[in-house]
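User: Can you predict the 3D structure for this chain?
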Amino acid sequence: MRAAEIVETLPTARLDDEALAAVRMLCEQRLPGLIVADEQGRVVGCLSSVDLLKLALPRYTLGEPLLARVFDEAHADRIAELLARKPVRVLLEEAGHRIPVARPEATLVELVELMTRHGCPLILVEQVDEGGLGVITANRLLEKLAAAISEASP
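Assistant: Here is the predicted structure, written as structure tokens:
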């Protein structure tokens, strides 16, 4: 199976979109990450769900579970509110990734290797002269790998 056979068309967030709207879209669509496009519609990066969760915390709490424990729910709501008002552009600058790009003829194994090497749950599939074909999510890859295993099992 090749990349071109399993691509999906997913919604994208624009750089100037409000973070809350982008996060809602991510949740409603059950996406593992957010694809970000510029004003011309070109994909410029992505934010994984984990990246977005990390941005909801003050940096000084990252890797400090005891410190994180002292925050109450009211404080957590204020932190999340600050995140929600930021534009996607700011989130991408703080924690975004360049989205890995695969050829349409890339195999499942190549796609898994690319995704794990970049630590990104999304891969953009592009044709050299024609631009983007679509995106492959980690969930879609797992689905196809599980199907291949099921077919191979007696």
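The longest strand covers residues 131-137. The chain has a mean pLDDT of 87.
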